[in-house]
Design brief:
Layout lengths: L2 E5 L6 E6 L9 E8 L8 E9 H13 L3 E2 L11
Antiparallel strand pairs: 1-2, 1-5, 2-3, 3-4
Length: 82
Amino acid sequence: MQEGWLIDNNSYWSVRFHRDQKSWIRDPYVFVDHGRRMPNGEPALLKSRRYLRLDEATLLWKDLRSYGWQVTAPVWGEDVDV
């Protein structure tokens, strides 16, 4: 797992799953950021960040997918073309 993105059915809220490089080898943890893209090139609105073990993050991913969240391209950050 490098990074994964999900977006809700209304294309409003997004969730970013990305590994904690410092813990990955000995005890894998994942950062889970919840937020949304802002208009006019403003910085993203990040509502929360969770720090979960890999197995917990995997369960969260599966739960969100079962509720209809869709896999999407990066929504904010360096990899995004606005």
